[in-house]
Amino acid sequence: MKKIIKNPYSHFILLGLVLLTLPYLAEAGAIRNSTVTVIGTTIIYTIAALGLNVLLGFSGLISLGTAGFMGLAAYISAYVTETMALPFEVAVMAAIGIPTLLGILVGILSLKFEGIYLGIATLVVAEILREIFINVTPFTGGATGALAGRPVLAGTFQLNRIQTYYLIVVVMVLIFILIHNLTKGHLGRALNAMRGSEAAAQAMGVNIFKYRLIAFGIATVLAAVSGVLYVHYVGLSYPTTWNLMLSLDFLAIIVVGGFRSIFGTFIGSFIIFAMSELFLKPIPALANITPLVKGILIIIFILYYPNGLANIKHQVSHWLVRRKGKRDAFGQTKAEKKNLTRAEVRENDTV
Amino acid sequence: MTPSKTKELALKIEDVSIAFGGLKAVDNLSFAIERHEIFGLIGPNGAGKTTIFNCITQFYKADSGSIHFINAKGKETDLMDLSVHEIIDEGIVRTFQNVELIRELSIMDNVLIGAHHVMKQPLLGQLFNRKAIRKDEAESREKAEKILAFLDIEHLKDLIAGSQPYGVQKKVEIARTLMSDPELIILDEPAAGLNDTETKELAMRIKQIRETYQTTILLVEHDMRLVMDICDHICAISFGKRIAVGTPKEIQSNPEVQKAYLGEEGELE
Ligand SMILES: Nc1ncnc2c1ncn2[C@@H]1O[C@H](COP(=O)(O)OP(=O)(O)O)[C@@H](O)[C@H]1O
Ligand SMILES: [Mg+2]
């Protein structure tokens, strides 16, 4: 039992199960249907943000192009299913494959550009993509956007809105598990090393070129999955959606949620997207200040919680122990602190 | 222990030079290291010691000269043909003058990075956390625990590396080198920042490492007592140039060395 509770997979699955109940709650009238849609979209954004977290959080590489890659996948999937009338599965492969190849090319750029320059380079790529979204009308529908239907699985199962939501939740849980697998071991250590000390990483045999490409590859695959789910859930794709603001939102998610934390990415996505959609935008007076609220949140987190929400619970328990420690006259504090930090590491490992 | 009588060489540095702008950081430097010996490189600050380490490990490409490594099987490799990340595959591993750890990771994870090049884990296998991957991870962890126990820091293994005192961090760096099954360990000022007791322990450890892990050790160190105590041979350099090579005794009594190096920094013991 303890093993099951400790197992991170079960955390992801539990989260998935909770999310799966939302449509029932909506049917029962406990929450609005539109809330389910917002949460579905939030999950979609979580996936792209998790990709950015692998890139930035683990590998220390910045990208301001997430929205561009997500949009590219959305358009490809819409085009392949609608215009070419090919199966959904084919669309998924094309919509993940093409952006990922492009993402890996950008990874090659990352060897030439460091830090802020890499940010600018990725932004340029995303802006070029946006020009394509606006101007290559036969492919994207230009300013009027591209339409896409709900997924048809294996050529026969036409999903409705709620079933598509289920699909999104299942994909999220799968991705959480796979990314957990990838980041908790060999690859995760290599990416961490690359971020933490490039010199040590190289001395230990980490091929920086290879791992930068892998990091960009993972980030784009996730952005692409996110784009595919988006276009078939929301039903359309406008060029204005895939702008710098969206890429910055993904950055904000990580800052607020926590670097290198899967759950943190989910929570951050909730705060940055769902909160503003559900609580700020319905109130006209607040709708316009949404970007301001996000900006303030980012500043607060960078200043006071640089490790994001994922770490706040550790800080709280640290604080509690320290208080307890003061009352303890038997030198227990050190041991307690030690245990705590151990637990913390384990948590960080699994989250 | 004296070096083996057959005097097999492990590392040959011949006429290596490298300049930064007009400054010749390493100037026609040659020395050779025998297998299984502890070799010290000494010289005043800025003499080019770290630079030569960087040339050996290919962080810098030497302007001229040659650097050859002969592994335990007798295979000779021109290190200048390799990239930085390929050096460890030859069995050469290093530490850094300013400890280079992944601060946010646990000590265990930091040590495990040392096994990066021995772990052959295909991405797909990792993605699905296949049995072979789990086995590899578990075995590596066990190996890391043994190394940490050897260095007396096993109880700290789950703590965050960056929050540890300097002495522990330096041990973690050494543990990481041992994790890579090294033939040649290159230590850049391993005693810097350590107190007297820690330095004494370090001297013992370095000798132990050579015996237990059957390695050759090349080190830069300012602590003369440590160098004289543990090294089989020493090379003294100044302004990138070699001034003397010999046993600790020979180096101690060498007038050139005394003039160039020890004269300014204090007396030799
Ligand atoms: N990357 C570099 N760029 C410019 N100068 C360097 C570089 N690396 C080392 N140097 C210079 O080379 C000389 C030797 O430095 P170093 O090898 O670090 O000395 P030390 O013997 O103290 O380890 C110094 O003058 C240093 O400034
Ligand atoms: Mg130095």
Write the layout of secondary structure elements.
The complex is a heterodimer of chains A (351) and B (269).
Chain A: H1 2-6, H2 8-20, H3 22-27, H4 33-58, H5 66-83, H6 88-109, H7 116-135, H8 137-140, E1 146-147, E2 152-153, E3 157-158, H9 161-184, H10 186-196, H11 198-203, H12 208-234, E4 236-237, H13 244-257, H14 262-280, H15 284-287, H16 290-304, H17 312-327, H18 332-350
Antiparallel strand pairs in A: 1-4, 2-3
Helix pairs in contact in A: 2-9, 4-9, 4-12, 4-13, 4-14, 5-6, 5-7, 5-12, 6-12, 9-12, 10-12, 13-14, 13-16, 17-18
Chain B: E1 9-20, E2 23-34, E3 38-42, H1 49-56, E4 64-70, E5 76-78, E6 92-94, H2 107-113, H3 123-127, H4 131-150, H5 166-178, E7 184-188, H6 196-212, E8 216-220, H7 224-230, E9 233-238, E10 241-246, H8 248-253, H9 255-265
Parallel strand pairs in B: 3-8, 3-9, 6-7, 7-8
Antiparallel strand pairs in B: 1-2, 1-4, 4-5, 9-10
The complex binds adenosine-5'-diphosphate and magnesium ion.
- H/E element order of chain A: HHHHHHHHEEEHHHHEHHHHHH
Report strand order across the widest sheet of chain A. 1-4
Fraction of helical residues of chain B:
25-40%
Average per-residue pLDDT of chain A, rounded, comes to 86
Number of strands of chain B: 10
Oligomer: heterodimer
The helix/strand order of chain B is: EEEHEEEHHHHEHEHEEHH
CATH topology of the largest domain in chain B: Rossmann fold
Which cofactors or ions or other ligands sit in this model?
adenosine-5'-diphosphate, magnesium ion
Strand content of chain A: under 5%
